[in-house]
Amino acid sequence: MLNPTKTYYIRELSRKLKIPYSVLYKEVKNLVEVGIVKLEKKGKICLIALNKDILYLQELRMIMIKTAALGEFLKESLEKFKGIKYALIFGSFASGKVKERSDVDLLIIGSINEEELAMKISEIEKEIGREINYIVWDEEEFRTKARQKHRVLVEIVRNPLIMLIGDENEFRGIVG
Questions:
Q1: What is the pTM of this model?
Q2: Are 48 and 7 a contacting pair, CB within 8 Å?
Q3: Could you give the domains of the chain?
Q4: Out of 34, 70, 109, 139, which residue is the most buried by the measure of CB atoms under 10 Å away?
Q5: pLDDT digits 0-9 by tens, 71-97
């Protein structure tokens, strides 16, 4: 949904999603029946692609962004910024306790243009229909806060998080 022009091999998706091929294929057939995806067979290879002709494509895309695909959507948006060492979602979205009015809590560590980031975050908020509360620290500030056992950092590593950019084990190791 985030990349409507992309074609996927069902076997590749099966491996990436860690879902047995037969189970995934059955679900793909269901999606084909309701017109959400198109299935193309090339010999023994099965390819799927989003049906870009469905009337409710934009609505489906928004549902995906607001739920399961939020992390990927944010990751793609943030990867355009050079200088981000770590970016992660924490709070209700990361713990799976999302409510209708839940905001998105985001921690970004690195050297970035904060004005450009604020503009991008504003665009994303409009797109997903949710407020994004974000914290930006440069690496030195992050390491200082980690040494001081800053309450926000301690709380973040104590709970589930969704790592968008950077290595989660390295991040957790620094925080301790």
A1: 0.66
A2: yes
A3: 7-54 (1.10.10.10), 59-175 (3.30.460.10)
A4: 109
A5: 888 898 999 999 999 999 999 888 777
